[in-house]
Amino acid sequence: MAEYKYCMMAPPTPVIGPQKQMTGMLGHPVAENPIDRMFDAVYAHHGLNWQFWKNDIANETDLALAIRALRPLGYRGMAITVPWKVAVIPLLDEVDDDVRAIGAANYITIKDGRLIGHNNDGKGVVKAIAKVAPLRGQRVVMLGAGGAGRAMAVEIAWAGAAHLTLVTRREEQGREVADRVRKASGVACDWQQWDSPVKLPKGTTMLMNATHLGCAPHLESVPVDWNTVEPGCLAVDVITNPRITPFLHAARERGSQIVDGVEMLVQLAMQIFEQWTGIRPEETVFQQAVATALGEDSSRKSG
Prior knowledge:
alpha/beta; Rossmann fold; six-stranded parallel β-sheet
């Protein structure tokens, strides 16, 4: 009888591409922020197998769990947004000089298994404002002094502002940040109680909303006594969606120049992208990506 041999063919070797590199953002709330669509579009433009995930983290317990998970999950970097820019610091392995001076971190790089905190919130706002008006000599009123606000206050002082007034509901927070600004920069910085409406000190040349008021979908008005806003006062908003908030709309109706939060987001996001990837991006790519994410004509310019 003939002998037959049976053999099983080995399955084909799967074709495996480069592992996707993960980045993202931790904050609460995050739904309306266009940062994920912007980063993913820029990653695609540069041919990078990278992805950006937004994560809504509702409490400090979950924040600690999320930070501990970054290493085993293989993340390359993580942006930090409100309200966790201060609370995240003790959870990190290392922070840079900016974080030590400001007392808040807005993004993390992960190198050799170490979580390193950085802060470029203020650098983004300074670059955005500089496109419209010089910061040197400005007398600034800032509404709010949270994680982003404190970074912006310090950087604005470093950029040459003559005086800052921080308007907050919580006196302890406002005075602590004002003291930090004075120590970090030597620039005079006062605290003012948040009243409704907020009245600006005479001589104010720049008014900045560093709160969440005006963010989609609620679109609240910022309670400013516009009769105390002098002609020519520059209006700045940190809100990224919508681009033109009720605050900026009211300021523009009164003839003020404006700086929107989307421009700030682009400026700081480009710096973060370069830190994470080592690639220096083109600004037009970021501008087009965020405009598409917001459903705008990419040729539109704010202000």
